[in-house]
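Database export, one record per block. Field names are fixed; values are copied verbatim from the stored entry.
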Amino acid sequence: MTARFTDKVVLITGAGSGLGRATATQVAGEGAALALVDVDEKGLADTAAAISEVASGAKVIQIVADVSDEDAVRRYVDQTVETFGRIDGFFNNAGIEGKQNLTEDFGSDEFDKVVSINLRGVFLGLKHVLAVMKEQGAGNVVNTASVGGIRGVGNQSGYAAAKHGVVGLTRNSGIEYGQFGVTVKAIAPGAIMTPMVEGSLKQIDPDNWEDVGREFVSVNPMKRFGRPDEVGHLVAFLLSDQASFINATVIPIDGGQSEKY
């Protein structure tokens, strides 16, 4: 395995499961020191255990934090810098799916909750991490958007609005911070089998969610769900110096779904 992250520090939000865990294990296996952030303390511990299986000597800290709370965001950034001295890569990934409803039936409180985590949380992470990277004169950021950030997603007003906002923040921040040696890009995952996607399917039909999933991916040219590790490989590349001239853009990883529809 290559060692693209030797002597590098990577900060990951939403690290307790799914794409965050897959990316954490990937970059740890390539030498990264890691700051893992999530609201789920057990999830963080499970991710740390998974890292120990692929990189037994990896330096890892676990930080329980709500990404929509600016004090908590400031704390996870400060704790990372105090522990490791810098932040080389930031996977700004934490998010929730929210409930599914027609726009007219979508609760205002639910909308605020989804936007608070999926958009405000990304903004706050950018705000505080980019200041560190600007001072360093280097750094790579990857935000988690979605195919729902580049096209419509029925029955998910809050999610679609937030992910479209993540795309805008990505492009804007990349334009602003490229002059300081910092890149900002986003991934737009499609149907990746994570606990969050499983939860969305169970909202539709709790008893037959696997059948719903098969129907859902039938519109994908590859006719299957993506795997978290497939996304982890992409994010690791984008966080590495190999992607140092990719900036202010969004990269789909969806099996071709967004091109077909």
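Remark 1: The chain has a mean pLDDT of 94.
Remark 2: The chain has nine helices and seven strands.
End of record.
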